[in-house]
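fwd from M.: "can u put these together and see what the complex looks like"

so here's what she sent:
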Amino acid sequence: SQELEQSPQSLIVQEGKNLTINCTSSKTLYGLYWYKQKYGEGLIFLMMLQKGGEEKSHEKITAKLDEKKQQSSLHITASQPSHAGIYLCGADLLSNSGYALNFGKGTSLLVTP
Amino acid sequence: KAGVTQTPRYLIKTRGQQVTLSCSPISGHRSVSWYQQTPGQGLQFLFEYFSETQRNKGNFPGRFSGRQFSNSRSEMNVSTLELGDSALYLCASTWAATQYFGPGTRLTVL
């Protein structure tokens, strides 16, 4: 089973609209990362959240970590075509061999004119 | 500084062959991690190297191996390739808890 669940799987929004992507962990979260990936390319680091309640912003993208709910949300304000891509959350989760970076399956975002 | 580079960018192999992928981290970064990305399984952690030592390993069969050299460059080897090994292989170097990803190597196994 997936240890990091992202929702929604895909999203189509009109340019200028706001949107939210969620990432929920089945294990205790000690930190969470958000990445953006252009189709078939490498990942671009967006931000890292380490403390419960922490909120960070990068341009029009804001992410927040809720440690109690083991969840993080990524919010994009006034979306633009340049925001299109796949957003992935990642977290260091404890496994049998120690901590390893796990990822959600991604949320595909399309921004229409 | 130059980013993380991966070679080759594209590779086509046949079942049963072996393959070696290369990753050069950002200068000064000593930690290199490898990931496999497929449409079905998403992004999965393969292994992490730090100063030539494997620090962590994901849940992959022994056909997948890696190593890191004294200059922090890393190689990943897959032996006896299977169709299911077709994927985008990404490496990342880490600095201050931030991972910097390379563009990936697209491996196709026929």
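replying to her w this: The longest strand of chain A covers residues 85-95.
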